[in-house]
Design goal:
3% strand, disordered N terminus, 15 helices
């Protein structure tokens, strides 16, 4: 029989019909009804309780000892305002935390910068067959020896000059008292009597004690900061490859090769900048030591080290070192001071137009105007450390703009 044929069911008839036959049945066609659809089906389904729903509710109630959570709170104006206020307080707290930890952050940044700068030397020693651990040990030993020699060259002259100044103070006081102008001012304003009262009443002693304690605190803080810097640099230098690989894991896999290439170029630029800057400082210090030695200046090595250290600071470092050394030269003799001024003026021209371009041409590619602007911003933010970090950071930003932003803009 075809599927479309209607089914037939017997239709009961009451007993005692017209034909007198007892029970009889008629065959009547019955068409099957279609299942309910739409809202009716959902209503019917929802109205029928199911045993498994009751079982699931029971299991959920057993799994949650404090009951089933209710509906979320209505997001009214009060809730929006409370959320915004908490966000502002959180941002303010984070900003205060960053300001409080500013010195630590600067220390970490400088240590990472030094580690990246020393890494090319370590890799060069590795190229000669040394293990990375031994290469790092040799580089670090050289850094420690440099600081020790710097201290041995600076501390004795400073101590000697301080001792000589203390011994010469009485003579300076006698010369001051013999001055006619000072005598006249003392007669009018009793300057010497007030000075004597200040000394005898303990004011000078308290000031000196406070100054000594403050100077001691500065020395201790500088010692611990230097020690922490060396330790952090050592750790960064030892784990630099692992840090690079871990940071690459944060980049999508399809972009890792390009990111690795750009990152390696940035690190090579920073390392080249640090090595070039150190080389320029060594040249400045060496030539200054030769000049000061032949000129007969006292403490020629200490003054040359001052020139070398200040020359590390971009833009103003060489000028600061030249002014300090020339001032010391004038204190020793006028001809020596004049000779120092002439030497440093000539040398800075040679350094700016001959030595610096040749050394830095292979490490950083930054326009002179960008270098000046970056150094000014870095100095305003972090002082001498910011000025030192500004140029390689500007070179890294310029590389990212050139390799990432400009090609993307060209495709639009």
């Amino acid at each position: 029989m075809p599927d479309s044929a209607p089914e037939t069911v017997p239709s009961p008839r009451a007993p005692g019909g017209p034909d007198g036959a007892g029970e009889a049945t008629d065959i009547l066609p019955v068409t099957p009804s279609a299942p309910p659809s739409g809202a009716a089906a959902r209503t019917a389904t929802a109205s029928v309780p199911r045993a498994e729903d009751d079982h699931a509710d029971g299991s959920a109630a057993e799994a949650l000892p404090y009951g089933v959570p209710g509906k979320p709170l209505t997001r009214g104006p009060f809730l929006w305002g409370l959320t915004a206020a908490l966000g502002v307080l959180t941002a303010w707290g984070l900003a205060q935390a960053l300001v409080s930890a500013r010195s630590v952050i600067v220390l970490i940044v400088v240590a990472a910068f030094l580690a990246v700068g020393l890494n090319p030397i370590v890799e060069a020693l590795q190229g000669w067959g040394l293990h990375r651990r031994w290469a790092i040990s040799i580089v670090f030993l050289g850094v420690i020896v440099f600081f020790v020699l710097f201290g041995l060259a600076i501390v004795p002259p400073v101590s000697q000059e301080t001792s000589d100044f203390v011994k010469a103070v009485p003579g300076y006081v006698q010369d001051l008292l013999a001055n006619p102008t000072i005598k006249r001012l003392d007669a009018d304003y009793q300057i010497l009597n007030k000075l004597q009262d200040y000394i005898t009443n303990g004011g000078l002693g308290a000031t000196l004690a406070g100054g000594i304690l403050g100077a001691g605190a500065v020395v201790v803080d500088a010692f611990f900061s230097g020690f922490s810097l060396l330790v952090l640099t050592l750790y960064f230098l030892g784990s630099l490859p692992a840090i690079k690989e871990y940071l690459l894991l944060l980049v999508p896999a399809t972009r890792r090769p390009r990111t690795r290439a750009i990152g390696d170029e940035i690190l090579d630029g920073i390392g080249g900048y640090v090595a070039g800057n150190v080389l320029i400082s060594v040249i400045a210090g060496g030539l200054s030591w030769l000049f000061l030695t032949f000129a007969g200046a006292k403490y020629a090595l200490a003054l040359a080290l001052v020139v070398a250290v200040t020359d590390l600071i971009p833009l103003v470092g060489a000028t600061v070192g030249a002014v300090l050394v020339s001032a010391v030269g004038f204190l020793q003799s006028v001809p020596l001071g004049i000779a120092c001024v002439v030497f440093f003026v000539i040398y800075q021209q040679v350094e700016n137009y001959v030595i610096y371009p040749r050394v830095m041409s292979r490490s950083v590619d930054v326009a002179p105007a960008v270098s000046v602007i970056a150094a000014l911003f870095g100095g305003a933010l972090l002082g001498a450390v910011g000025a030192l970090l500004a140029i390689p950071v500007a070179a890294a930003v310029a590389l990212i703009i050139r390799e990432v932003l400009l090609p993307r803009q060209a495709r639009l």
